[in-house]
Amino acid sequence: MSGSALNVLITGASSGIGEAVADRFRASGANLFLTGRRSAQATLRPGERYLAGDLNDEAFVSQLVDEAVSEFGPIDSIIACHGLQADGALTDTELGQALELLEANMLSVFSVLKHAVPKIRAGGGQIVLVSSRLGLVGIPGQVMYTAAKGGLIMLGKGAAVELAPRNIRVNIAAPGLTETPAIEAGIQSHSDPDAYRAQRAATIPMRRLAKPAEVAEAIYFLGSKASSYITGAVLPIDGGYTAA
Ligand SMILES: NC(=O)c1ccc[n+]([C@@H]2O[C@H](COP(=O)([O-])OP(=O)(O)OC[C@H]3O[C@@H](n4cnc5c(N)ncnc54)[C@H](OP(=O)(O)O)[C@@H]3O)[C@@H](O)[C@H]2O)c1
């Protein structure tokens, strides 16, 4: 593997924001170890690795980290992009659905950190957790998603303080509505998708959704050496949504 290139583990790399983050790190010359649930990653290049599995399964997380380290050596950056978005009014949500949201958005990230942090290079490294604008503010109909993403922010802040003496920085990205397959599918499920898209855009001060590459650029900043004195920060990438 190339000399000073970062060894980067990216979860949720098979789609949307995670795929765009992989593209951004690839452009920087990083060594990529990617994971998602589907069997293949569409943009994988020679020399990169993709391992498919469910991060809710701690045995898979352990295997993932072991394979990444045996492939590349110590990890420099961990970017946790995986997650599950779901709607549901508080009183209509079954306990099982609530647990699923907590597992997919927060507890699985805990597992990744538990197993991967000990494998970070001795001199330090960087971690980015992808939360959401909805980890910072509530909206009706997504209470358990916001609870999970808010919890993820505190997982990141706590880890930042605990790991700072080892020069491991932990920051949290809080994207706004982003044009990924998950969001696009939701828009297309409405009877008038264009009208619904315009309605959602009108709630954002910049009056448009984010492109995955715009979100990936900010995540790349937090997940590379460029942000060397920033830790425990929450960076909204949301067109002004949480400033309003
Ligand atoms: N798009 C937005 O507007 C938006 C806004 C704020 C925050 N976010 C957050 O940004 C992240 C990415 O969102 P996205 O829109 O890019 O979603 P997406 O296109 O649905 O991609 C989600 C990714 O997470 C993986 N994943 C989901 N559950 C997993 C599990 N249990 N184990 C392993 N991998 C799992 C998926 O793998 P497979 O597809 O292979 O199954 C996929 O790679 C999520 O954490 C989301 O909450 C998104």
TrEMBL record:
<dbReference type="Pfam" id="PF13561">
    <property type="entry name" value="adh_short_C2"/>
</dbReference>
<dbReference type="InterPro" id="IPR020904">
    <property type="entry name" value="Sc_DH/Rdtase_CS"/>
</dbReference>
<protein>
    <submittedName>
        <fullName>SDR family NAD(P)-dependent oxidoreductase</fullName>
        <ecNumber>1.1.1.-</ecNumber>
    </submittedName>
</protein>
<dbReference type="InterPro" id="IPR036291">
    <property type="entry name" value="NAD(P)-bd_dom_sf"/>
</dbReference>
<comment type="similarity">
    <text>Belongs to the short-chain dehydrogenases/reductases (SDR) family.</text>
</comment>
<dbReference type="InterPro" id="IPR002347">
    <property type="entry name" value="SDR_fam"/>
</dbReference>
<dbReference type="GO" id="GO:0016491">
    <property type="term" value="F:oxidoreductase activity"/>
</dbReference>
<keyword id="KW-0560">Oxidoreductase</keyword>
